Amino acid sequence: MQCFPSLVLALSSLLGALALLQLSLYLRVPSRYGKHEERLCRPRGRLPARCAWFLQELPSFLVPALLLAVRSPPRLEPLGCRLLCCLFCWHYFYRTFIYPFFTRGRPFPLQLLFFGTLFCIYNGFLQGYYLIYCAEYPNDWCTDIRFTSGLFLFLLGMGINIHSDLLLRQLRKPGEVTYKIPRGGLFTYVSGANYFGEIVEWFGFAIATWSLPAFAFAFFTLCCIGPRAYHHHRYYLKTFTDYPKSRKALIPFVF
């Protein structure tokens, strides 16, 4: 396999188009799982949340690993390129092999699992293919301001995301399915602290990578989970009379 810039451009453009489609579909109506499931039609088939998250996220880790394994000789030079690939795989290692075994979410609709898995295969291929077969960075990329600032945002966003997920898990005891007001951490300021962290994380990755595929993915993330954070915020306001009115939907300190 060799690098085809036209393929990277086409797949990145399609990812941007999918982001806009996602935004148009779910800006007014939330996607049908979790706390928004009761107000809409219940899907017929579901899987336990732990199994569903594992199956959905696995391709994003596995596909880049397979792309690297089939390349002969292996190529991830210079050091900056290796680090960028490791950042992507590190996130999805956590999302595949750690996060699912601690989640206490409701059973996941099979339809959304199917489309989520397809997206992870698609995006895992795009990001892995670009970094392993196409990316070219100078030897001093690790000291470039784009890499260092992007790495900082990536680590900050991942830290916010993991900490916020921990706070959400602590709201429920094993077996509980009721929703409660999240408190602490960045939840003091925004209703979707976990989503905010993931958006910051992937825009940091895009800056560090300075590539069209990574920016397309960051834009997709914003269009996908941004509306969900908005609908979470509206749900909390309608459900809990004591919900803090000072909190924002997604971005802290934005009116």
Automatic annotation (TrEMBL):
Broad enzyme group: oxidoreductase
Main location: endoplasmic reticulum
GO biological process: androgen biosynthetic process; cell differentiation; sex differentiation
One GO CC term, this protein: endoplasmic reticulum membrane
GO molecular function terms attached to this record: 3-oxo-5-alpha-steroid 4-dehydrogenase (NADP+) activity
Residues annotated as transmembrane: 7-27, 108-133, 145-164, 202-225
InterPro entries linked: 3-oxo-5-alpha-steroid_4-DH, 3-oxo-5_a-steroid_4-DH_C, SRD5A/TECR
EC number of the protein: 1.3.1.22
Keywords in alphabetical order: Differentiation, Endoplasmic reticulum, Lipid metabolism, Membrane, Microsome, NADP, Oxidoreductase, Sexual differentiation, Transmembrane, Transmembrane helix
Domain 3-oxo-5-alpha-steroid 4-dehydrogenase C-terminal: 107-255
Subcellular location field: Endoplasmic reticulum membrane; Microsome membrane
Catalysed reactions, as listed in the record: 5alpha-pregnane-3,20-dione + NADP(+) = progesterone + NADPH + H(+); 17beta-hydroxy-5alpha-androstan-3-one + NADP(+) = testosterone + NADPH + H(+); a 3-oxo-5alpha-steroid + NADP(+) = a 3-oxo-Delta(4)-steroid + NADPH + H(+)
Gene3D superfamilies tied to this protein: 1.20.120.1630
Topology of this chain in the membrane: Multi-pass membrane protein
Known function: Converts testosterone (T) into 5-alpha-dihydrotestosterone (DHT) and progesterone or corticosterone into their corresponding 5-alpha-3-oxosteroids. It plays a central role in sexual differentiation and androgen physiology.
Family note: Belongs to the steroid 5-alpha reductase family.
Protein name, as recorded: 3-oxo-5-alpha-steroid 4-dehydrogenase 2
Organism the protein comes from: Bucco capensis
Gene this chain is encoded by: Srd5a2
